[in-house]
Amino acid sequence: MGEVAAQLNLLSSEEADLLHYSDANLKSPLSPLFLHIDIESSSSAATTTPPPPDDEQLNPNLKDSWLPITESRKGNPYYAAFHILNSNIGFQALSLPLPFLTLGWAWGSICLTVAFVWQLYTIILLLLLHESLPGIRYSRYLFLAMAAFGKRMGKVAALFPVIYLSGGTCVLLIITGGGTLQQLFNTLCTQDTSLTALHCFFLFTCIAILIAQLPNLNSMAAVSLIGAVVAISYCLLFWVLSVHKGRPTPLSYSPSSAHSNPFPILNAIANIVFAFRGHNLLLEIQGTLPSSPEKPSNRLMLKGVSIAYVIIAMCVFPLAIVGFWAYGNQANGGLLAAFPKFHRHQVTKFSMGFLYLLIIIHCLSSFQIYAMPVFDNLELRYTSLKKKKCPRWLRTCLRLLFGGLTFFIAVAFPFLPKLSGLLGGMTLVPLTYAYPCFMWVAIKKPRKGGWVWCFNVGLGCFGMLLAALLVAAAISSLPHNPFHANFFKP
Questions:
Q1: What's the DSSP call for residue 389?
Q2: Cα(456)–Cα(481) distance, rounded to whole angstroms?
Q3: Coil, strand or helix: which one is 136?
Q4: What is the pLDDT of residue 345?
Q5: What sign does the CA torsion over 369, 370, 375, 376 have?
Q6: What 3-state DSSP class applies to 28?
Q7: Could you confirm whether the keyword Isomerase appears in this record (predicted)?
Q8: Whole-angstrom Cα distance, residue 177 to residue 384?
Q9: Which of 117, 248, 313, 432 has its CA 20 to 30 A from that of 37?
Q10: Nearest to residue 95, comparing CAs of 349, 273, 312, 278?
Q11: Chain center to CA of 428
């Protein structure tokens, strides 16, 4: 403990502020409903000499070992790659041919490449910021945002995006997985079945919460491996079978929208940028890796990211380009709708059912990793109050409660996927494409006016502008693409 205290005395005031939001001093950052907030103002905290930290505050491993994200730091680059593949590749990639209907071959390919490189750059920034100072780790996106922007501004900027991209994604996975489960039963059953969407949502949620009883994120490596394998499999099968079965006729590859109207173009760009996700989980995944001064976790994480993104590129680019070549202007609804529409008679019902089964398994596995930050926050509330580890029975009850809540929201608002453009522009785009650049500047403090500073500030500002434009485009498209708000009628 003496060595740690001596290191703390050598920290500057800015470094001490960074330490306050790191894993070494886990405090609940959310509202009182979930987590405790220190009500002292930042100004008084800055002028008051803090009391000497006790042993519990000095030892980051004590509270880390209580929480499901950092309970086990025995991961490796391959486990990290499994988690990244499971969280990043998803059913949304099957919609990548759609933007080409509006953008055409050239601009569609350019936008897809730019989005891929941009989000890969911000991932590298995040994995480097995970250990901004030697021995200080940020294993939660919200904590890093609070360290970079300040407690209040960090919560204002990142709280809603982090909540939506964790809990909200679980709701969307229930809707998508439950809907695909219903399609599976309708495909395999020759007779009329009384199985409704409500039954499928409930069955999907029960299976998901049963799997969610695994204790921590590192223990879910096998689940993520299964999710990664099935996601790669159905991405490969959809474009390979589309080519093998032949193209429908007639086809057209001409852009379907006039370039004088910017909103369809922006909505097409939105479909591309939404295809890349999982940044809100990257720090959590890196938190499962071991770290030492000789071998920091960012080296291991960089290896895992490299493995994962080579595979991701091999999935998304063929899906987009070959998928558009195979269906052209007939790709409305994406490959998940176009393939059964044109080729159902060319494949057996068991082959079609197998594709649906792969999507369901991937939704179940993705649910686990997206739910983990929520489980972590709920248990952090308990450990902050009780100063001890959450007991097993309470952990099970919290996860059952979360499953029930997400099921209720999915049933109450089954039209949420129709609002994904609006909500994604408000949450995924800033958190993925803008905030990492600003956090890098705030924490690393490159020379103001230098090319590193200008590049990151400019890229971050462009990301925020893109988010605002995509939100405006989503709002403008609502009157032209109305949907039925079928509350409690999935």
A1: P
A2: 36
A3: strand
A4: 84
A5: positive
A6: coil
A7: no
A8: 35
A9: 432
A10: 273
A11: 8
Spatial contact of 151 and 441, defined as CB atoms under 8 Å apart: no
E strand or H helix that includes residue 142: helix 141-149
241 CB-contact burial (10 Å; exposed 0-12 / middle 13-18 / buried 19+): middle
Task: Judge whether 197 and 179 are in contact, CB under 8 Å.
Answer: yes
- CA-CA-CA-CA torsion for 273, 274, 279, 280, nearest 10 degrees? 140
Encode pLDDT of 143-170 as tens digits. 999 999 999 999 999 999 999 999 999 9
Angle CA(59)–CA(444)–CA(374) in degrees, nearest 5?
Answer: 50
How does DSSP assign 39-78, residue by residue?
Answer: -S-HHHHHHSPPPPP-HHHH-HHHHHTTSTTTS-----HH
Strand partners, 136: 133
Helices (H) and strands (E) in the chain, counts: 22, 0
Chain segment 88-111, per-residue pLDDT in tens: 988 889 999 999 999 989 999 999
Structure tokens at 263: 């909103």
DSSP conformational letter for 133: B
With vertex at residue 99, the alpha carbon angle to CA 98 and CA 104, rounded to the nearest 5 degrees, is 110
Query: Strand, coil or helix: what is 99?
Result: helix
Query: Degrees (nearest 5) of the Cα angle 349, 355, 361?
Result: 130
In tens, the pLDDT along 365-381 reads 999 999 999 999 999 98
> 10 Å Cβ neighbour count for 6?
9
For residue 250, give the amino acid letter. P
Residues written for the chain: 490
CB-count burial class (<10 Å; 0-12, 13-18, 19+) for 355: buried
Superfamily of domain 81-477: Amino acid/polyamine transporter I (1.20.1740.10)
Tell me how far apart the alpha carbons of residues 83 and 86 are, in angstroms, rounded to a whole number. Answer: 5
